[in-house]
């Protein structure tokens, strides 16, 4: 509970809020300089997200994978590992889910859960490779995860082409109806938006990660390893096993992001030329959320909302959607360097007190 | 010695840190050719005052005069140009660099129009300086490869290289062996003879009496007294320092020795570079006794600890704990078998500095009931445990939710001892348990070790400080090059004899000349 | 107001090539809103997305329709972007590119009143017009050019990703080469990407080093690297060692110059978008129909600028094969 | 595989490696001073953008062959500009260095594309530069078998990169500046106490890393693409980061890693051209460079030791 309260204490709540405002301001100034109407742009963004049930539902759908990849990166960070490989784990999770979804035919209460479990496991294993190489051979996980991203992309393309391809479609067969995790009634309520159970799993994952990290013996161990590996060794904790476990969990979380994109959104996997960037965005989300599970949730909401709303900006105000990356970047910047905000506030206070003196 | 001319005068210095006044209107005067001791408890503000003189901190109030001139020391550069040099409490050495590189850093001899470092000239200069002051340093050695004593000499050379006339030594002897301390004192005397002035921070009253001309005492940031050393005695200094009477004599009951509990037999372990770090080390530890392992740092003590605790595997020999073979067990198994360790490096090995005290208190027992139930941490139990230990061991912390990093060194150490002792081990290994602590804290910790002994536990005290070994141990084993070379009773030996055993003294060696 | 133009009107670079004279502008499309959604390649992909947008811009110029596009940043956007237009009651929404198939299908099913059109994929729905191209036919013709003009008898093909559309280019090209020059060998490299010029450059370098003198690329932005490598070589190469690239989708000689561009395999996405949109304006929207545009429709083929580098006899041969394909005398393979 | 093929492969590898070498050198300088730089991708993006735009303008203004050099300089300058953000955030305001690096990546991709659209009438790509760099054949040296074709018939930027490897090596290990820089990255307070301006050194290093990574990005625009668009830089910055670590923060090591990677890429093309290997599914060939990198790392002995103070903001008086 204490941590929960900490999140909402003064300093830690005010700084992000100011950061968001400043980030939006930076975006506004740039738009204004470029000859666009920032007010119209932000209004369009807001309308795109909250203007109708459909887009609201789709925004939720856009947020969901970011929660998972954000948690993935944050979890690894907490255990002292920098997982740049959420991207690859995401793809592998996707492939695992597609494989089960396409190739098997079972009742829904087995099929969907099985697809989720298999995809998640494969994402986890993909993460574990980097963990194992670090534990056993001392290979820096930053390099291996970068390399494994590319390997995952091509490997999954191979699997789709070789085992799952629907001829002439450039993608796998559609997954079995029973493997889908869409929520019919909610989807109908939201004008057919592609909402799915993944978002509830995302919320569960937030709680799960929080509980694991801060409530369980396992998480305690992993945090000790992350914070001071030497002390962990002296305390009799198996550091290498910790690294492998942590990367497994991290990978599994990223894998889940991919799993639900397949089972809830696309229903198939395309042969992809490149990665979607959800894994990299996960790094940003994790950092935005201060590597705290609840922070990650909030970060993903912000990130997802802005990204999804960007299309509205470009539709309603003809603003190039790239601007939103500048906004997000600025928000993270101000969150990460609270010194700037404090410095600014001090200057501000200083000035106003000077003003009074005069 | 000529009549002391004032070289440094610090007037009414005040320095605040968030929540604390580290220096409260402190004045300090250093005469030329003087060795001036600065004495005070942990956290009294000694380092802070000296860091101000060296330009690392800026004081909120006060003035500084060097050689009669009012100066504004806005950075180390300024201090260096004023002829001030500082040997820091925690060495400021770049470990992957060589001795020479460390010494010349910042004022390198140059060649090719300043484009390149003139290494040849640098090595020559360092060699020359080292000879001049009798420091005997290998200019080509990497810092990583030399002993702590040598590292300190590098620090001294750094200041001399920059032409310092005023040298500040911040707890220089805390990490040295008796021999090294003796040598250092000689070096310091040497330096003042060559016209340097020295400020010496130390917790060791003996050293002050032995070498200092004047002593200034601070307590909780405030100046208490400044007086000539002649005419003082350790008890008087200690009392001024803590503000109450302290007994410097350490009393303990006669040990009631029981059956053997830790039997180490011909332990062999390979060290770095293939040489034997432990070379058939054997000894026996019995219930109700404190066995002190005396020795110069680097003679296998660290490896011995690693072997005993299962951190590293041994190449041969056996370790029996209460009759059970523990060689080959994991660290956790060893711990469960009844062995506790107070590690040498509290920051690196003893604590997770970014965790609150609460979580540090269960670092080795978190997985056991009642701290973990069904895989979940039981914070009620953990908190109760932490509260109890904090109280029992007088760990001064604002709360058990405070991060360990925020505790002072002494309190960090108390927290570790609380944790280890509370595990109720058969054998408690205490490695350098009082390094860098003030007399009050040292007293507290020593008492706890003896308490364990009196409860019938066995304590293995590994220390580089002879005083500590002599005071606390019931029996002393001397380790040299990975081998126990002799065992003595404290009452039947003295510093000289021990010192000789520790260096495997055979013939007189060429020490620093004077 | 300035920015309104950026999306809605101003010609993007290179679009003037096929624009019809402005004089003929009428206002028949004034009340029509037509939009397109790009795939992740974006509207400036120098390929079908850009070509499609040029078609729409021409439509605006000629007939006063209001046109707009949205770029998809990731595959989840396909459907939401289409829906954005459908909800805004656009008269026609185009899904551009093979990858959009599923999204168009979904949107069409959920919005039976909306009119949609699809480029490069087939969507069987009553309210969708599907347009595909017989890339294999056009590729056959550039294959004929390559087969007749190679000096080394080694010809290269650089593909993006090994997917059905690209396979059509590949196989058509191969058939064309073999038809006129059975002895020529064809080296193929699939770079695995449509957006990595460095891979294109490396692939081209390997091929040219291997003695290849003409490369046909069907690899989007990856092809920039192919052109770049060819240009580099021609800078220093002796006259008889000159190497060539055959461009794709648009007349790439306009961008990369005719000193390296032998010819291009045009794929008139702009024409298709323009004409189908016009049909919609005129009330003749081919809903539910699948249109495959090939040589007979002049929707694929060689640009007029080919005369610069391709000798008349070769062009004559190309014309001959073109007729044979149209007449059905030659069947160009589409897939293995 | 004959001798000529080997030379050609090396040549191709070097084209690919040049940008990686430059960016990795930048990464080394920054990280050696104690500042993590995962913003290399963004810095390269900034460099590629500025290079493509200014070379195009210079060409338009009739500068001819000098245009490419103008582009290279502009790329370097723009890299510095973005590195300045990183420096201010991490050094002055002590922001988390990883976070700041990610921010650089975001802002660089976002703002360059935005600027392209502003400058080129809404287009997502700059117009093609014709006056890009062209290969220079070094007379004499280029006649040597294998390495003649492999190394001495390369783009001027490749020569620049190779020379810079030497320069950075020299600076790091022989010069006063390098000694101080490494000291700052290993133990800033040690450096501080001998009067080295820690923050100023770090600023210098981070800005230099922007310069080099910017040049790296520019290289890609000016030798490979001739334009700048959203995917001109796609992952090279991260590969360069890997090269920094792979090369153990040593310029020669990083160069080795970068060339190795380029070589693995060119093997990948050559494999597709040989009959014996044409049956291997192409996906496995694409994976090759990445798999090889991991295998080499696994086989390599000795863990890389990062600079001691890497990632830690410096506070004066911190213990
Ligand atoms: N950088 C700092 N930030 C905040 N507080 C500090 C800092 N440095 C020192 N202090 C505070 O100032 C007080 C004096 O610290 P200082 O290091 O000068 O003590 P000391 O007398 O040198 O102790 P010791 O004998 O342990 O070396 C400490 O209690 C500490 O709380
Ligand atoms: N960088 C810092 N920022 C804030 N507080 C600090 C800092 N460094 C030290 N302190 C404060 O200084 C106090 C004592 O620290 P210090 O390390 O001087 O203890 P010590 O008793 O001297 O132990 P040691 O044996 O480690 O020197 C602590 O209360 C801590 O809060
Ligand atoms: Mg201290
Ligand atoms: Mg101190």
Automatic annotation (TrEMBL), chain A:
Keywords: Cell membrane, Membrane, Transmembrane, Transmembrane helix. The keyword Disulfide bond does not apply. InterPro entries: ABC_transp_permease. It comes from Cohnella soli. It is a multi-pass membrane protein. CDD domains: TM_PBP1_transp_TpRbsC_like. The keyword Nucleus does not apply. It comes from the Bacteria. The chain crosses the membrane at residues 12-36, 56-77, 114-133, 195-213, 243-264, 270-289, 296-317, 323-344. PANTHER family: ABC TRANSPORTER, PERMEASE PROTEIN (PTHR47089), GUANOSINE ABC TRANSPORTER PERMEASE PROTEIN NUPP (PTHR47089:SF1). This is ABC transporter permease. Pfam families: BPD_transp_2. It is found in: Cell membrane. The lineage of its organism: Bacteria, Bacillati, Bacillota, Bacilli, Bacillales.
From TrEMBL, chain B:
Pfam families: ABC_tran. Keywords: ATP-binding, Nucleotide-binding. Coiled coil: none annotated. It comes from the Bacteria. One of its GO terms (molecular function) is ATP binding. Residues 8-245, 262-506 form the ABC transporter domain. PANTHER family: CARBOHYDRATE TRANSPORT ATP-BINDING PROTEIN MG119-RELATED, GUANOSINE IMPORT ATP-BINDING PROTEIN NUPO. This is ABC transporter ATP-binding protein. It comes from Cohnella soli. The lineage of its organism: Bacteria, Bacillati, Bacillota, Bacilli, Bacillales.
TrEMBL record, chain D:
It comes from the Bacteria. The chain crosses the membrane at residues 6-28, 35-57, 69-91, 98-116, 154-173, 205-226, 238-263, 284-304. Its main location: membrane. The keyword Cell membrane applies. It is a multi-pass membrane protein. Coiled coil: none annotated. Pfam families: BPD_transp_2. Signal peptide: none annotated. It is found in: Cell membrane. Keywords: Cell membrane, Membrane, Transmembrane, Transmembrane helix. This is ABC transporter permease. It comes from Cohnella soli.
